[in-house]
Amino acid sequence: DAKTTQPNSMESNEEEPVHLPCNHSTISGTDYIHWYRQLPSQGPEYVIHGLTSNVNNRMASLAIAEDRKSSTLILHRATLRDAAVYYCILRRTYSGNTGKLIFGQGTTLQVKP
Amino acid sequence: GAGVSQSPSNKVTEKGKDVELRCDPISGHTALYWYRQRLGQGLEFLIYFQGNSAPDKSGLPSDRFSAERTGESVSTLTIQRTQQEDSAVYLCASSWDFSSYNEQFFGPGTRLTVL
After folding, report:
1. For an interface test with A, which of B43, B102, B105 has the most A Cβ atoms less than 10 Å from its Cβ?
2. Among partner residues A44, A49, A98, which is closest to B48 by beta-carbon distance?
3. For chain B, which residues score pLDDT lower than 70?
4. CA-CA distance, B67 to B78, in Å (whole number)?
């Protein structure tokens, strides 16, 4: 599976937007870009995913570069509850795929009141 | 609706003992995954079930680890002759299937401490 690169940590102020970057220069045409987050002492939770077009849901937006070599998770108004580790994960569609998630170290987001 | 549940939430055992960890996936989810997270580390994949079969066991760290799934529902992860390095949070996740566009729903995990 292709590798992703994320900053180790980021800080944000409460109620301000947060842009979490992810580089995936070796992405292939069949790789979906997924974001999960893990709040302290909890299991990971799905945030959003996309393939080529930008995506919005109730939690966040995902902006995907035209060449798909990078993407940005956007939290429109950070709250204290958004403090978590955010994982950018590529998932490939191919014969024999098991759908397992390959987690990197992620970005630890701190939200200051 | 009910999410993924795991039991026990915490387990403390002595080195050398066997332990069983249970996962109840979301009803109707055919894919089930086990992951492990050591303290301060990222998640490691252990094993994947599609129905009751385990086509991918590549993440099991040793033959002391085994898992089964019955009725396309409950799964049990068994660790025999536990070692201190087995101490970790064991997380279970389920999904409609293995497709790369489907999200995985995680349980709260079982924290295993081997003394």
Report:
1. B43
2. A98
3. 1
4. 6
